[in-house]
């Protein structure tokens, strides 16, 4: 018997799981080439469909130049314009201004970009089959969309705040059109502006044209924030180079004419805002001068009248040289004081009193006032008439100088304002190229192919990781500690016959007696003959064949192994020990109703069922086969308690008796992991073989089945790897890549 103690169990080689067998990994990928190619083709298919699903994307560009600011206040001369700094707007600042709502909102209003039209009848399949679907067209006259039943044109659409970003449906009717929000329907006439009253407010709409055949069109009024955000996402503003002052604007969209039209309006809106900013200072200064000039004229007239009246009263007065000098200096001081007061008044319109420029002018005025006080004290010592003459002459000169200066600057600013153009120059306006920048089909196809290949590769590796099937005999030996004593190649001839239901089950000797599979069975016979333990004289050998799970071909191995042993002119008995699902009777075409179960059952049951004597002979349940020297005991009818029957003394007595009658007894036992029958019947076996199936048996299950047998002190003598496949991806194909003898041609 093949029984050992736990101490005699062979040490199982331990493989370092951290080591990565790159060649084995490559073999795993090569073995899964079908799945990888399938996913690669599937990815390519999705890439082709996606490239047809999305509309082409077009792009248009424009260039702007940011010049130095030439504001109109410079026309006032160096005296005032030097005090007001003219900062140059950097390109980064202008970039943010272009993308601001201040610039984009007029574009949205002019082109009705907040009105969105959609054709609900265009499905995903239509986009794929057509490859390109119509998009809406925005102009200053309204929004239009082409459909297969006609064109939709909307000139105006205003909704209350609560209806923003909500979809409505437009449908053409006999009287005009119907606007529906899903709950209410509003009727209107084509070509007329209609107002619909709702609980949330009024809806104003003007529909010019709609598709025929009751073709619906979805219309949405977007909020300004969503519309400008969408426009900003498609708009790119960047400076060309560093500190060049050249700004490039780019806009993308699915309609070439549309994106060029929108970008042109963005540029025009920005230019208008720029001009308005550039003339703002000039306009403010002109308004201030227009308010001051009448007052200065009145002051001049008053001073001239007083001076003329004084001369008429006293006649001409000869003023001394000192008085002339004082008068000249005093006059200059007053002119300077008035200019500074004028500057201070102008600067007060832009800055507070704490501003450095205002503070500077205030200090200058303080110095001049102090000097004017000194001159007045000197003049006070002159005669009274001379003082009066100097005073009136001084007032008249100052007022005349201030008035003429103000009038001259006012006329100059009017000329400058008329020719003011801002500090931004258009270099290139957008043009239509009609060249799509996306989708780049070739790149999409290649990327989809690569992604599909990667996904297929990951699935192959994951499947190999989760279901590590038996492929490598050496690896199986290292995992289980049990030698692989035979690898039985896949039989193509037998596989073809198995698929044909009419052919039934056949043995290898009947299908390919000179094939590799048959030779492998013979090699297994040789191994068992020389490795069989010594037994008593005239006592047969018992070979138990089991597996870790159903469907691995243990019955196939049992039948064919028994057949090659019969060629030695030895008396062979095959016992179908799988009383649950055994099917060896199909191979030998023998009825399974009278077999192992019936023999092991109680005599009373046998007498009641088959009318047999109570004293039963085991030979009554053994049947001859068509193969010389081979007898067969089928499984019998399926019992309720097969494990109990195999554990009975009757089974032990049967095995003792059969050893005396046969040279070799082959027992086909149920799988180890499915039932405990194999552990029970192994107590009577000289050799215990475990069959596994290539690329189907799980390494972990095989290893666990071996451990279960060892826990019962049963040592597996060898593993038979069944259905071994040979191919270019098989690293260990040398186990069966040769044959000996006659080859069929």
Report, as a whole number of angstroms, the end-to-end distance.
44 Å
Q: Round the Cα radius of gyration to an integer and report it.
A: 54 Å
Q: Summarize the amount of helix as a percent range.
A: 40-55%
| CATH fold label of the largest domain | Rossmann fold
Strand order, main sheet: write it out. Answer: 15-22-21-16-20-17-19-18
Shape: elongated
Largest sheet: 8 strands, mixed
As residue ranges, the low-confidence spans are 1-19, 70-75, 77-89, 731-745
The overall number of domains is 4
Query: Could you name the CATH class of the largest domain?
Result: Alpha Beta
| CATH H level, superfamily name of the largest domain | P-loop containing nucleotide triphosphate hydrolases
Number of strands: 22
């Amino acid at each position: 018997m093949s029984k050992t103690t736990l101490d005699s169990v062979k040490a199982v080689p331990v493989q370092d799981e951290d080591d990565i067998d790159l060649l084995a990994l490559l073999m795993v990928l090569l073995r899964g080439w079908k799945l990888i190619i399938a996913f690669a083709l599937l990815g390519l298919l999705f890439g082709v469909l996606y490239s047809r699903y999305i509309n082409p994307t077009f792009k248009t560009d424009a260039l702007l130049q940011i010049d130095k600011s030439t504001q109109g206040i410079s026309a006032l001369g160096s005296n005032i314009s030097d005090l007001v700094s003219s900062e140059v707007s950097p390109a980064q600042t202008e970039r943010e201004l272009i993308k601001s709502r201040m610039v984009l909102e007029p574009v949205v209003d002019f082109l009705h970009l907040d009105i969105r039209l959609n054709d609900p009848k265009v499905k995903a399949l239509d986009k794929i089959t057509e490859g390109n679907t119509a998009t809406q067209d925005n102009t200053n006259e309204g929004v239009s969309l082409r459909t297969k039943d006609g064109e939709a044109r909307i000139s105006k659409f205003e909704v209350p705040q609560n209806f923003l970003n909500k979809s409505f449906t437009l449908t053409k009717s006999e009287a005009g059109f119907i606007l529906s929000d899903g709950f209410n329907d509003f009727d209107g006439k084509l070509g007329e502006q209609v107002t619909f009253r709702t609980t949330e407010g009024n809806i104003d709409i003007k529909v010019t044209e709609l598709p025929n055949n009751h073709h619906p069109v979805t219309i949405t009024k977007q909020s300004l924030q969503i519309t400008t955000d969408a426009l900003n996402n498609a708009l790119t503003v960047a400076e060309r180079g560093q500190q060049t002052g050249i700004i490039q604007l780019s806009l993308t969209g699915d309609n070439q004419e549309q994106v060029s039209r929108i970008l042109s309006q963005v540029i025009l809106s920005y230019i208008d805002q720029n001009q308005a900013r550039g003339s703002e200072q000039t306009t403010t200064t002109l308004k201030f001068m227009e308010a001051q000039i009448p007052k200065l004229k009145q002051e001049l007239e008053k001073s001239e009248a007083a001076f003329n009246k004084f001369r008429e009263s006293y006649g001409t007065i000869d003023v001394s040289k000192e008085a002339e000098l004082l008068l000249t200096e005093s006059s200059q001081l007053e002119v300077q004081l008035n200019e500074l007061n004028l500057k201070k008044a102008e600067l007060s319109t832009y800055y507070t009193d704490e501003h450095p420029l205002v503070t500077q002018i205030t200090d200058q005025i303080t110095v001049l006032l102090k000097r004017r006080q000194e001159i007045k004290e000197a003049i006070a010592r002159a005669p009274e008439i001379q003082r009066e003459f100097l005073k009136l002459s001084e007032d008249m000169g100052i007022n005349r100088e201030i008035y003429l200066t103000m009038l001259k600057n006012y006329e100059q600013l009017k000329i400058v304002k008329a020719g003011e153009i801002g500090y931004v120059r258009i270099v290139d306006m957008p043009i239509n190229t009609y060249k799509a920048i996306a989708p780049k089909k070739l790149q999409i196809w290649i990327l989809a192919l690569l992604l599909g290949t990667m996904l297929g590769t990951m699935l192959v590796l994951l499947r190999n990781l989760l279901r590590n099937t038996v492929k490598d005999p050496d690896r199986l030996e290292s995992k289980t500690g049990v030698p692989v004593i035979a690898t039985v190649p896949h039989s193509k001839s037998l596989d073809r016959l198995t698929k044909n239901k009419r052919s039934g089950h056949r043995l290898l000797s009947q299908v390919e007696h000179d094939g590799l599979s048959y030779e492998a069975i013979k090699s297994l016979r040789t191994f068992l003959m020389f490795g069989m333990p010594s037994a008593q004289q005239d006592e047969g050998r018992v070979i138990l064949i089991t597996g870790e799970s159903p469907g691995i071909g243990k019955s196939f191995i049992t039948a064919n192994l028994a057949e090659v042993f019969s060629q030695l002119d030895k008396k062979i008995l095959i016992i179908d020990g799988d009383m649950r699902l055994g099917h060896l009777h199909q191979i030998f075409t023998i009825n399974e109703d009278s077999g192992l179960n019936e023999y092991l059952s109680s005599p009373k049951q046998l007498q009641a069922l088959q009318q047999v004597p109570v004293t039963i002979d085991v030979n009554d349940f053994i049947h001859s086969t068509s193969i010389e020297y081979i007898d067969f005991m089928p499984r019998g009818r399926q019992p309720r308690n097969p494990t109990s029957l195999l554990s009975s003394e009757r089974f032990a007595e049967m095995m003792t008796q059969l050893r005396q009658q046969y040279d070799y007894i082959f027992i086909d036992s149920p799988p180890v992991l499915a039932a405990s029958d194999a552990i029970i019947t192994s107590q009577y076996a000289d050799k215990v073989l475990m069959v596994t199936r290539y690329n189907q048996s799980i390494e972990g299950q095989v290893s666990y089945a071996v451990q279960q047998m060892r826990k019962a002190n049963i040592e597996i003598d060898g593993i038979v790897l069944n259905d071994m496949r040979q191919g270019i991806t098989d690293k260990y194909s040398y186990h069966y890549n040769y044959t000996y003898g006659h080859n069929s041609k």
